[in-house]
Design goal:
Elements: E1 8-17, E2 23-26, H1 29-35, E3 47-50, H2 58-64, E4 70-76, E5 90-94, H3 95-100, E6 110-113, E7 116-124, E8 127-131, E9 141-151, H4 154-166, E10 171-175, E11 179-184, H5 190-204, E12 208-213, H6 219-246
Parallel strand pairs: 11-12
Antiparallel strand pairs: 1-2, 1-3, 1-9, 4-9, 5-8, 6-7, 7-8, 10-11
Length: 247
């Protein structure tokens, strides 16, 4: 069955720079370690994505439409991957601004400037040139993509969609033919709930999306419960000692 927009598919992939075949992205943990790009908090293994929802690079999303489960190689130009170099994102910043923050500017150093991440390209006199473009912008890349299966179970689809969209662990969803109840331990901002509701109604053909905050047991109740358990254990131990003394 050919893949179409809003289908859910389970994929594995590896991304390489076309010019030197260097691996910069992969779902394979072993390959990530061999390539020196594995991160301590990165989760590896197949991922489930919704086609057409920009959950992967545009070029991968576009090229998967019309395909069937199997293995593919996609060459992506910058416009389909990490974008072209934007000269407006290369800026000269007074070096004193970094010194004030106890940062010694150096070539190749990654810095956070007013919430934007950039890489220092040059340090000349009192000025530092910082590139805020994506590190792979302007690069042609190649992705090996394996489509393992089409995912048709609605709950598995919904859980996968929330995993990528919300990126929080403490959540669950109950979904029926016409409605869904999304349960989280934190109250999501109204704009996130509104956007999520609109997209999920479109993708899953739902009439209603409900958001429920799961309240944790108050600390006082937890403390009282712990004290009660300790009291019961103490009484049991005392009873055992009494039996031993009587014998």
């Amino acid at each position: 069955m050919a893949i179409k927009k809003h289908d859910f598919v389970e994929i594995e992939y590896t991304g390489r720079l076309e010019e030197d075949d260097i691996v910069f992205d992969t779902t394979d943990e072993t390959l990530a370690k061999e390539s020196g790009i594995n991160g301590p908090n990165t989760e590896y293994g197949p991922i489930i994505i919704c086609i057409g929802e920009n959950q992967v690079l545009e070029g991968i999303d576009k090229n998967l439409i019309g395909k069937e489960p199997g293995s593919y190689k996609f060459k992506l130009i910058p416009e389909e991957a990490f974008g072209k170099k934007d000269a407006r994102l290369i800026q000269l910043i007074p070096t004193r601004k970094f010194i004030k923050e106890n940062i010694q500017p150096a070539l190749g150093l990654q810095v956070n400037v007013d919430g934007a991440m950039g890489v220092i390209r040059t340090v000349t006199g009192g000025r530092t040139l910082v590139d805020f473009n994506h590190p792979l912008s302007g690069k042609d890349v190649v992705y090996d993509v394996k489509v393992k299966r089409l995912v048709t179970d609605r709950k598995e689809q919904a859980e996968a969609y929330l995993n990528i969209t919300l990126r929080i662990k403490d959540k669950e969803i109950n979904i029926t033919d016409s409605a869904a109840d999304i349960r989280t331990k934190i109250d999501l901002p109204d704009d996130i709930k509104a956007n999520l509701s609109t997209k999920m109604k479109e993708i899953f053909k739902l009439d209603d999306i409900k958001f429920t905050v799961q309240k944790e047991t108050p600390k006082k109740e937890k403390k009282e419960e712990k004290e009660e358990n300790n009291k019961e254990k103490s009484e049991e131990q005392a009873e055992k000692h009494q039996k031993i003394d009587k014998s």
